[in-house]
Amino acid sequence: MTLKNVYDVVVIGSGPGGLAAAVAAKKEGAQDVLIIERDVELGGILLQCIHNGFGLEIFKEDLPGPSYAQRYVKEAYSLGVEVLLDTMVLDITPQRKIYAASKRNGFIEIESRSIVLAMGCRERTRPQIRIPGSRPAGVYTAGTAQRWVNVEGYMPGNRVVILGSGDIGMIMARRLTFEGAKVERVLEVMSYLTGLTRNYVQCLLDFDIPLQLRHTVKRVIGNNHVEAIEAVQVDEKWNVVPGSEEIIPCDTLLLSVGLIPENELSRKAGVILDPVTGGPVVDDNFQTNVNGIFAAGNVVHVYDLVDWVTEAGYQAGKCAAAHANEVRRKEHHLIPLIAGNNVRYIVPHMLDKRNLEGSEIRLQMRVSKPVEQPVWLEVHDKNNLITRRAERYVRPGEMVTVVLKPDHFTDVNKADSLTIDVVPR
Amino acid sequence: MPESYDFVIIGGGVVGCMLARWLSRYEGSVLLIEKEADICMGATAANTAIVHAGYDPLPDSLKARMNVTGNQMWDQLSGELNFPFERRGDYVVAIGDDELPALDTLMQQGKKNGVMGIQILSKAEMIVREKNINPDVSGALWATTGGICDPFAVTVAAAENAVLNGVKVMLNTAFEDFIMEGSRIVGVKTNRGDIKCRWAINSAGVYSDQVMHKAGVRPEFIIKPRRGEYFVFDRADITIDNVLFPVPSEKGKGILVTTTLHGNTIIGPNANIIDDKENRETTKVGLNEIWEGAQKLVPSLSLKYVIAMFAGLRPYGNGPCKTPGIDYQHDYIIEIPEDVQGFVNLGGIESPGLTSAPAIAQEVVDMLRDAGEEMKEKKGWDPIRRGRPRFRDMDHEEQKRLVHMDPRYGRVICRCENVTEGEIVAEIHAPIPALTYDAIKRRTWLGTGRCQAGFDMPRVVKILADELGVSPLEVSKKGQGSEFLARPTKQVEN
Questions:
Q1: Is pLDDT above 70 for B32?
Q2: Is CATH 3.90.1530 the classification given to domain A340-424?
Q3: Would you call B231 helix, strand, or coil by DSSP?
Q4: What is the third-level CATH fold of B87-147+227-311?
Q5: CATH architecture of the region A125-257
Q6: Is A152 helix (H, G, I), strand (E, B) or coil?
């Protein structure tokens, strides 16, 4: 695939938000749309969510994650969305320049008229909730374990304790049970379930996996590999209830303790983040404070249903396309003013040709060298003289002005650029 | 017929590896044995990563001399071995007027120890230099020769240079006993067989007491590991660029707020004496202790931005200071004992052991020469160890050139720290091969960021398995017994 130098819309990430944004941008009339995905396939985390429950709102169907993703992947390809896989975006500038790298395409530098940030979120980790103890193998976030099992085809362990009653944790409890592991316990520090009730019923109750509310992990035990964890009961203020300590032998501790929008790239682009959501501050078009940079899906705030992520992606993609089209129109009408013979500079540097239809445009400049005899200041495109102004002399110390009038519109409108030269009269 | 060496070094921490590099300069065969799956797994692995100026140790102690001499060797060392090192200077910060006199005491002590470039700063000067400092600051001691380093990078660089100059390194090789002929050591017994040697060198860190006891040396010397716990902060959210010590107490140099070469702020350590030489657990009490201690220096820190926590063990020993008239029981032991031949004995090399390591290595070479070893310089000894590309430290133009030369550097495996496949593969095939996940992590810094390996881990395990030609089931975090995966999932028949 040959990459273009400039795209209308570049979407970063191909989870449900990114896929919807790319599809919507294309449908809204953006010409060149590119998705950059760091994994080797499109679909994002949906690909490892092989359980059902996706699409009830949008398709009125109960789909597994990969099937849900596939509908948008197909649509994106059929609309002609370009795709870079196994490619990591390294940097985005506020001017919408994107730096990325991949093994296949090497180091990539492209510009885009609009960008949609759709990087999703990452999982909260053990240090972030500060579980003390040793640092052995066998402590994983639920999502990483999900990838091991559903994508790579390996089991992280056989006796599992899960901390956190988030949806991924409960779904993994069921999944690991299917695979023959013993899930000893799901512990939840809050006094209530943090995931969906339907997951509690279908993933825990149906499989006799005990859920203990107001319980947490006090300590990880085992030097090389997890050998056990120490569970404790806590009160409303999360203080340990004395005497409630219990050692639970296990080889794996999974953490399902929250998601954090992933906005490292957004920061580099100068996007302002909301400290509460962890995601960009956006308007109703999902545009951030940086002109032309949009954000959609879990990168903005953590959703509970994928259908809503798709909907947000759609809106962001649509608005990104509209923005790109506006920029394109402007680029089409904007031409540079070139300082030619004996002209040091011209202000403005560029002009929007449409503005000449109804009004004059004053071009102000200084010359490089004095000429003490009559001269012309000639304005021309590549081939034709458009207008000229007579001066008795020109000196660097005295600014000179040439005025373009509405009469010149027809000529200027055909030009790709305008050059101004000083020539003897 | 067992293998035979002139020198066998027991223990691959910074002291052992630096010594290997120093000995590699001279004729004679050298073997370094390390019980773990990688070098740099003990005290060197988990500390504050500071090259100390030398105002802390008691004047006229061996510790003080090694510290100050060692500190001066770091610029040349980092140039020769190509590891990053920055002399940022460090501050001892007095909070409240009560602590102010302690700065003067430290300054006098530093001058006695021969530390150059120390001065006392006023409250106003300190606030200008660190805007996040506790507003109750009353003054600070400023030591210009303090520095920061990456202890893994230092140790790996020294060991690699040693290997390139002919030293052999055996990992997963645990010392069991000495082979003696009368009072002379003629070899060591290990879990992988006997090894003959003319000299055995004890650089076994927290186990150095047990090793010397096997030779019958200093039965009264014991090491009680001193455990220190740490928090690491996300560099995107918290940026303290200075090395800030509190005023020291009898428990040691106290709980710092400092920065790493990787740009992360870290806080710690506390100092708890424990019995178990393998217990690197963090504790709720200990973590609270460092949190409170750090807030004393920088009240604006927030626990919300903690991305990692760890604990390290220091080999805190009871070695007596040999200088007459000084009653100090925690000095370094660096000696060739009189009653056992063929033995170089190092013990109690706690902080500032990292700073002192090159000076200790030089001291041992001098001792060996005094003991009658010729120590003849080898022809063709190369002091230079070349570094390897670090994608994340490059600007975009350099990255472009690197990726153009080798496309594997274009595949980013660690999203937070921007570590590439090219770097990982290079470490797996380096002179000291990185054979475990943690070995790669310590060399490349992957997995140390805010997602703590959530993204890279399955990918790194695959690369390790492919490069080593093993199943992913055999790939471990830090050696045998720490494998990531238990078994394949159920197989489905189509």
A1: yes
A2: no
A3: strand
A4: D-Amino Acid Oxidase; Chain A, domain 2 (3.30.9)
A5: 3-Layer(bba) Sandwich (3.50)
A6: helix
pTM of the model: 0.92
The answer to whether the beta carbons of residues B54 and B352 sit under 8 Å apart is yes
Residue B2 pLDDT > 70, yes or no? Answer: no
Interface of B with A in 395-414 (CB under 8 A): 396, 399-400, 403-404, 407-412
Q: What's A2's DSSP letter?
A: P
Using one digit for the tens of pLDDT, what is the confidence trace for B159-177? 999 999 999 999 999 999 9
Parse chain A into domains and list their residue ranges.
6-122+260-331, 125-257, 340-424
User: For residue B450, what is the nearest residue in chain A, using CA coordinates?
Assistant: A125
- Give the pLDDT confidence score for residue B251 in this predicted structure: 77
Q: Is A275 on the interface with B (CB under 8 A)?
A: no
Q: What is the structure's pLDDT at B1?
A: 53
Q: What is the CATH code of the structural domain delimited by A6-122+260-331?
A: 3.50.50.60
Q: What is the mean pLDDT of residues B395-406?
A: 97
Residue of A nearest to B416 (CA): A264
Among the listed residues A268, A261, A314, A265, the one whose alpha carbon sits nearest the alpha carbon of residue A58: A314
| Catalytic center residues of B | 52
Structure confidence at residue A382 (pLDDT): 85
Q: Is the ipTM of this complex over 0.90?
A: yes
Q: Which of B307, B308, B486 lies nearest to residue A156, judging by beta carbons?
A: B486
Q: CATH homologous superfamily for B3-45+152-222+318-370?
A: FAD/NAD(P)-binding domain (3.50.50.60)
Contacts of A147 in chain B (CB under 8 A): 458
- Contact B492/A at CB under 8 A: no
A258-295 confidence digits (pLDDT tens): 999 999 999 999 999 999 999 999 999 999 999 999 99
* Set of chain B residues whose Cβ sits within 8 Å of the Cβ of A219: 281, 283
Helix (H) or strand (E) holding B384, with range, is none
Q: Whole-angstrom Cα distance, residue B265 to residue A269?
A: 23
Please say whether the beta carbons of B268 and B241 come within 8 A.
no
Q: Which of residues 459-488 of B touch A (CB under 8 A)?
A: 462, 472-473, 476-488
- Interchain contact, A101 vs B410, CB within 8 Å: yes
- Tokens standing for B50? 């500071």
B254/B270 Cα distance (integer angstroms)? 7
